[in-house]
Inverse folding.
């Protein structure tokens, strides 16, 4: 069955090659981030060689919203068939999703059929700079109301706030989610996550139509080298029709890909 990973950080040559060598995915999204950064020109030279490699560009608030917005506009003009959305990092960045400074970004995304993706939930905070209050999935609700025709994605099912994330997804037809970044490499949390997701799905069965397969793959030497465990999760939770939705059909909806 076709599998599309909607959430990887295979955004340099080494990690991209490692992910491809696993031969587990039919396509995947590379989400640009502050780690493993390549120069834009070099990155797109790599990405454009693979027609099954989708890209999310990123905005770093500390480096400047306007700076990154101008950068994304220029990149989109050059690579309109490669960039499918923009990733924002509330929690790592001190900004709420409904901050008015982001409205021009949302207007641009709406005009060009792009999807807005948020980091939501826990943060890896070695530098002790992140703030969880910005990353709660309930913060997505207000902006989803203000932009009803713009598609949004709550990453990581807002873990550990999974019920709140599911409530936002259920309430807003334009909000989707993925369950990436929750299982560590040793797989010890796989069984617990299956139980937790089964509980969330019992309350919010609509998630079957709005949740995507994602892993947060960060390279073979990282804690997020666990694609097999996520496949185990899907195979344990869903019937064949629903697997198609989770593995690829919901991805096409969330990013309006024909």
């Amino acid at each position: 069955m076709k599998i599309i990973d909607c959430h990887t950080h295979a955004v340099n040559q080494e990690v991209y090659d490692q992910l491809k060598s696993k031969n587990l995915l039919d396509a995947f999204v590379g989400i640009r981030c502050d780690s493993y950064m390549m120069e834009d020109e070099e990155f797109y030279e790599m990405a454009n060689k693979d027609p099954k490699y989708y890209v999310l560009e990123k905005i770093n608030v500390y480096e400047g919203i306007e700076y990154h917005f101008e950068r994304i506009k220029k990149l989109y003009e050059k690579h309109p068939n490669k960039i499918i959305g923009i990733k924002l990092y509330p929690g790592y960045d001190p900004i709420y999703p409904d901050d008015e400074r982001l409205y021009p970004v949302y207007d641009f995304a709406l005009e060009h059929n792009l999807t807005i993706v948020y980091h939501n939930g826990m943060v890896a905070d070695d530098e002790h700079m992140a703030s969880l209050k910005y990353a709660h999935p309930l913060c997505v609700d207000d902006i989803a109301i203000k932009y009803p025709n713009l598609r949004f994605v709550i990453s990581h099912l807002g873990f550990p706030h999974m019920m709140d994330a599911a409530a936002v997804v259920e309430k807003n037809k334009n909000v989707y989610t993925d369950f990436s970044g929750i299982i560590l490499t040793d797989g010890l949390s796989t069984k617990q996550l299956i139980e937790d997701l089964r509980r969330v799905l019992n309350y919010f069965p609509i998630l079957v139509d709005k949740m995507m397969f994602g892993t947060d793959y960060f390279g073979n030497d990282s804690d997020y080298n666990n694609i097999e465990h996520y496949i185990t999760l899907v195979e344990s939770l869903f019937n064949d029709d629903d697997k198609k939705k989770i593995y690829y059909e919901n991805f096409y909806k969330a990013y309006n890909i024909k």
Observations:
- Residues 99 and 143 are 9 Å apart (CA to CA).
- The chain has a mean pLDDT of 94.
- The first helix runs from residue 13 to 22.
- DSSP finds nine helices and eight strands in the chain.
